[in-house]
Amino acid sequence: MKIGVLVKNVPDTETKIKLTSDGTGIETQGVKFVMNPFDEYAVEAALQFKEKIKDDATVTVVSLGPDRVVETLRTALAMGADDAVHVWDDAFEGGDMLTNARILAKVIEKIGFDLILGGKQGIDYDAMQTCAAVAEHLGIPQVQIVIALELSEDKTALVARRRIEGGDEVVDIKLPAVVTCEKGLNEPRYASLPGIMKAKKKEIKKIGLADLDGLTADDVGSMGSTTKIVGYESLAQRPSCRMLEGEPAQQAADLVRALREESKVI
Amino acid sequence: MKLGLSDEERMVQETAREFADSEIAPVAANNDAEGRFPADIVKKLAELGFMGMLIPEKYGGAGLGNFCLVLALEEINRVCASTGVTMSVHNSLATSPIIKFGSDYLKETYLPKLATSEMLGAYALSEAEAGSDAASLKCRAVKDGDEYVVNGTKLWVTTGAHADLFIVMLRTDTEKRSKGISAFVVERDTPGFKVGKKENKLGLRGSSTTELIFEDCRLPAKNLIGEEGIGFVIAMATLDGGRIGIGTQAVGIAQACLDASVAYAKEREQFGRKIGEFQAIQWKIADMATAIEASRLMVYRAARMRDMDVPHTKEAAMAKLFASEAANRAAREAVQIHGGAGYLKDFPVERYFRDARITELYEGTSEVQRIVISRSYLQA
Which CATH superfamily is domain B122-229 in? Predict the structure, then answer.
């Protein structure tokens, strides 16, 4: 059974985000990137399947992005993944979610997986589109935001559990399929030191535009994108809170006066 | 000198950091308060490979080296110095003499068990009348056939109450001084060997410090490390690594002091302002941070030299001396920045203050470090 895990690297949650001077992107200089936290659940789920199945199950992690994503791929290898694929080409720069999904779908087609796992969303853009679009491009079923996942005895189907308003939804899904993982699915393991040493020796396979049949530069990156981020704007700072003092009657009078004269709402 | 971290060094540091913050930090204050040895944490550390960092892969270790050990030790000590010293002693003092000087028999018998922490390691050099003057130790081993008969008492043994394997320095020749000392591996359940009184300490309260008592204890001769008479050489070579470990512990404690002080300075208000807006606090933060950076670079360099197998006795002593004194200044200033709150067990700096003190005392006092350092200039 071949399991593929889509991982991305995102700015560490503690990073202070700064915008680029034109306001259409974030400044990546000096930002620490880590594996997207929801993707950690996906890697862990894949490794648990592999440990359970044993017979020839492999876990391959795939990441699309510039050279910095190699760090995240190494982390996944150190956790126990078998192989890693780095998908990048200068032509991929500036692609939107749909465009990136088009590339990832081609990569998945090329390698061939029985199950594709991913995080429920990237905590950077919060679009929640890529994995869904990958499934659409591949024409295979998808279940999103799962909190429990079990493989059928004959390894041809999964039973997924989703938390919905007031209860759980249980979904049976035929493989191959795309499944996205939610917090609570499992407890991601730490990369062990022997795992880190093994990861160091593993080769990371590179896939670029020329390796993907049927895709041209017009289909990918900013050229292929149909959405474009035109700007980011900070929210206006909320004015600080003012506490009224004095007796209740005095406070009520002050409040009415402030609402009428300062805020002009009454 | 290379300053950046390689991919695998960064991953070792990140794993240690995540483990320290998620698994150790939440229980560190309680373990200190109850004087509880973190056996469960040590087991988890071993599962991830942190208890066999220097042990070659063929004996079940991670085969990483001293620089990675330093990266990991700083993170562990940043949240809990008791766990930190347990890990440091096990790796630097217990596994390292067997790796460097041990016979194939000793390596094959003990390293795999030390790597998994099935056997936890400790190290015994000091005695009642042999502290800074270690070469005057008296604890006696007399050869008798294919055994040694051991009598005497060892003091100040870190992890003594919980260790399963002890590296012990014993006198095999009373005629010679330092050249009459030999190093042995002693298993906890050896007849005639017992762990004595547990000391009641100012800090490191989650770690045990005990006596070891030998009464006609018979050790197999094959438990001798290397050959007779090289025990002091082994002890000193081991202590170089131990000093890097304690220097690193000091860096970890100092970093914790800085982190706590910065957080408090941004939070606490007096005279209508955050106290971090006062220059008196800003200067303390700047001095702490600068000393920590310098300390860290010194232990990094000493560890890199140890990995390159070049002489580093002076560098290890300097790193340990500077870092331990910087940590104690940082701990004092951290309490000062917290004011009265820093004197309470409600805030972690109270524990850091107590834990920092030992770094100037063990693995050679600051005075002994100065002897070692000055000797390298005056007797060269």
Answer: Butyryl-CoA Dehydrogenase, subunit A, domain 2 (2.40.110.10)
